Amino acid sequence: MASSVARTWTRPAPTLSHPLVYLSFSHDASCVIAADASTVHWLSCDTFALRGLYQERHASRAVVAACGDMLNEKASTCAVVTTTRAAARPSGGSETTTFAIRRWRPGYLNYHWRYDEWAADIEAVEVRAIGVRGDKTFLVLDGRVDVYGLAGDGRVHVLHRVETCSARPLCAASRAAPVAIAYTGSEVGEVRVERWAAAAGGFAPLSSFRAHSSRLGCVAVSWDGRFVATASFKGTIVRVFHAADGMLLRESSTHCLKDSILKMAIASESHQAHCSCRWMQLRRGADRADVYSMAFSPDSKWLAVSSDKGTIHVFSVNVDVSSSSPAQEDIHNPDSDSPNAGSALNAKQPSWYFFSGFVPGYFRQDGSLAKFRLREGVKYVVAFSHHEPNTVLVIGMDGSFYRCEFDPVKGSDMKQVEYRNFMKMK
């Protein structure tokens, strides 16, 4: 039952405590979503006013993941996954773990037990992430992605289930309707893209392609669902694909330092008469980098990338899809990180747009338009402001929040315009 509460409501207790167990942005980047083991806060990126609160009341349950679209006070939707660890069996068996998902529409108090919408138990070994888009809820689990929703009988059902690579399952969804999702396939380096088909009442496959010869480290989908960005597990290459067919969008030429190995394939002169594109493959040294997050700008002109190297990079994705060039022939090199290495997954061989240079000390930094240096080793999540042009938002597991601006023409270092620590706010 809803309670009448004044709009001048201030942030209530309990405050967040270290360590955070989950951190993300709402899907429109209007809110920071931060969770410790027992509470989740939805904080406005503009005012840091509390827009949503989840407080777990049972000591045996712990928060695993949280999300929210936070569209407005009446249409917002939040969801939280909690886990319950049961005691070990008397016979000596190991303890069991169960998960539950709870989804609701927040009111002014935003407590889930006041505005409960639906709840469901989850059969899974581990829950990696959760997302909401309209009336659908996405769960990234070990080995699969489940899409929950209300069926015709008014009850919660798994509307769609896809098998993924169990090593490091990934899934990303577009902001705009109809929803497009990109997820890791069952093969190493494979990406599958599907789009919601309202007429069919389910997801319809769009494309399947080999993005990298190694397993994937990160996946992102543009707001309108046209583009898919992937990062290799090695952390040195980011590629952007056309979601519908995996065709080439654009290509950037870079140079590498002597610590790296340059592998380049140039189309023959006769082929260049019909296709002027060429591709260059860069590989780095022995150390690897973890790409923590990637995000497209609302207009798909920019892509932001964060990694454990402590530098945020912004790349230009100014692509004219109508003038895209056909794919190049692959050089069959087992050591190459080419997306075409191995057998093709599409009738058309996918092409790619790659960036390099976001691993300091290995590649020149001219691969990215702008960069912002932070503390190395901290997990940072990036997003673009939904209403401020050329503005990147960065949140860290240490409680840091940065608002940075970049020059879309000159590039270079981004300008920090705001810093907060949301863990210390009263």
From TrEMBL:
Keywords tagged on the record: Repeat, WD repeat
Gene Ontology, cellular component aspect: phagophore assembly site membrane
Protein's UniProt keywords contain Repeat: yes
Chief localization: membrane
Compartments in which it is found: Preautophagosomal structure membrane
Membrane topology, as annotated: Peripheral membrane protein
Pfam families: WD40
SUPFAM superfamilies (UniProt xref): WD40 repeat-like
Family: Belongs to the WD repeat PROPPIN family.
Name of the protein this chain belongs to: Uncharacterized protein
Biological classification of the source: Eukaryota, Viridiplantae, Streptophyta, Embryophyta, Tracheophyta
